[in-house]
Amino acid sequence: MVSSLDLAVLVAASTLAVGIAKPLQLSSGIFYSPGRHSQVTKTVIAEDLSLVAQHFSSIRTNSAKFNDISAIAMAASASLRIGVIVDLGVPWLIDSEIQAVCDGVDQYPYTVEAVYVGSESLKNGDIGMYTADQIIGYINEVKKCVKGKVPVGSILRANEWLHVDSADAVAKASNLVGCNIYPFFTPGTEPPIKKLEIQWGEMLKKFGHKVRLTKTDWPHMGEKFDDNVPSKDTMQQYFDDYRTTWSSYGKNQSYWFRAFDSTEISGARYEIFTGLFDINGVPNIQLPITP
């Protein structure tokens, strides 16, 4: 018979065991932006990346600088690797973005997994604002300054890589082909992981070993899109499928989108609620822990 004292000890021990369970750091990466903070400082970035580093081995950004703070240096200080973007969104800031990458690679060459010049920047209808030749010009600028220390490429949606002729020239000029795949915006009733696998297979068939998955997600809140409905259950299932049956089997580095729910994005709510954590750093779904 278990005494009340013994039971109390067992409960306390169980509680302690739960309390010290450690997050499992995945080999894959995640998109990070500090944009939800009213003031972006080294302190808040370091706090964010300390949390991210418990769960992931690397980050992907949407720019080389967080305001005037080096994204590469901040990743290095958090013992994270980084797939860094040269942001082409503001033309007069491109030179400073390239310089930040050049300086960062020079100081922290091991930290940088890859440099991606532009994200969804190729003109295709109302998407993108640059021609293939313009993007290739910037790719060559970056290649010149990183001197072969890290691979250089560009990021487009699967749709552009597969169906826009000028994308082939960008791919040819690139060491890596960064591909964003969005199961939520893909018509059909298949599970998200199946939609990912289909598009990934098409990308591999066309571009082979150059391909990297640079963005994929599922929103946990917001409006539906066609037959696709945001929910925590679907996000949980897709994230689990992605990390266990997709990214863990011989794939190169990939990035989930995103670490934190976003307050800096305007528009549909499904664009805001794709974070694995809410704006306060509380997990939106269950994340893996060490066995």
Compact description:
With 291 residues, the chain is an alpha/beta fold. Helix content is 38%, strand content 16%. The protein has nine helices and ten strands.
**Top-tier CATH class:** Alpha Beta
CATH topology value: TIM Barrel
Count of DSSP helices?
9
The whole-number mean of residue pLDDT values reads 92
Which CATH-level-2 architecture? Answer: Alpha-Beta Barrel
- How far the N terminus sits from the C terminus, by CA atoms, comes to 31 Å
Number of strands: 10
Query: Can you write the helix and strand succession as a string?
Result: HEHEEEHEHEHEHHEHEHE
- Broad structural category: alpha/beta
Main beta sheet, described?
8 strands, parallel
Helical content stands at: 25-40%
Strand order of the largest sheet: 9-8-7-6-5-2-1-10
Question: What is the H level of CATH, i.e. the homologous superfamily?
Answer: Glycosidases
Instruction: Write down the Rg.
Output: 20 Å
Query: Which of globular, elongated, flat, extended, rod-shaped describes the shape?
Result: globular
